[in-house]
Amino acid sequence: MNQISNRIFTLICAMFISLNFFQSLSQAANNPPAEGEKFPEIRLAIPQKGDDSKYLGLDNEKFFQIPKIKAELVLVEVFSMYCPFCQKEAPAVNNLYKLVQSDQNLSKKIKLLGIGVGNSNYEVEAFGKHYAVPFPLLPDPDYKIHDAMGQVRTPYFIAVRIFPDGSHKVVYSQAGGFGDAKEFLSSLLSKAKMK
Amino acid sequence: MISKRRVMVYLISFFVFAFSPFLPVAGAGDFKDSIYKGEKLKPIDSQSRLKVGDKAPDFSLPSTAGRQESLSSYLGKKNVVLSFVPAAWTPVCSEQWPGYNILRDEFERLDAVLLGITTDNVPTLYAWTEQMGGVWFPVLSDFWPHGAVSAKYGILRSSGVSERALFLIDRKGVIRYIDIHDINERPSTELLMKELGKLKQ
Lengths: 195, 201
What we know:
Chain A is built from 7 helices and 7 strands.
């Protein structure tokens, strides 16, 4: 009896360990970036509009990564022109941008960037034009960026804190609208320890 | 010796950890949660005889606004885009029309009206488009006689829904562009607008 119990115990332990191992593997491949983690290494094309590159403080290279943006905090909005929730959220995101820009100190530290998943350049521009989006929007026509970010639902917001030594970490990562822009900004600043 | 109680504790832990990833998680919104996610369908399941240059078959269908809309009422006035989509509350359709919804200025600039058509009934279409936040273009129901207009255009599938199809009709009522698309994929909006731009010239 004692031997049987030991065998059952060993079997369960083995199953438990192997299951958790495979789970962690699949999560690493599919999950969105979690708070405290690094932002996925995604190569993004420099925005075509010169003003957008200037806003993000990017050099004249073809590609960049989020931590290369000249800011202390970058808020990435994952959206789609075809997503009614992203359309509904657009005015709130514009308000957040205006709120940041109205503060001389914060406007230098916080930058916003949108990534249109499954959207061509034409579609991203159509979204930007319709909602008069004042910050850069980048296309992701073949869902490559979307895949790298764990195929998140849209809209999805990820805030990345960039430190003076060039290191970075995700401080906010959540699906859905953020509600009141002022409260959200305050919460972001707390999470990023920028208050 | 390992007690039965201890084995039970390990068993419970195992099931909790094993199945926790499959537990429902609060999503980004109710609309997306209401969308039916079916399996991949046969890309095209009909054979339209209509071709570019043909006269567009006329029709009159009820809209979600409570009116009858007829194609002939736009003759000599506007270019018309017919957007047939297979069904309300399905994934691709629930994105395609919200996309067109923010392009009203573009359709108007190109002197065109957009008519959205499905084989769903009016109340279903009303509920669906209201959940999108409402749309600016007429949404027409080809429910009864079931799929009659879709059949006239040669795009009624064997399951009773229409293909995902776009027809561009000029002011003279002539078909100038046809895209009977893979039902599983969204047609290119950019291409549609380019074709519409040709009618404006």
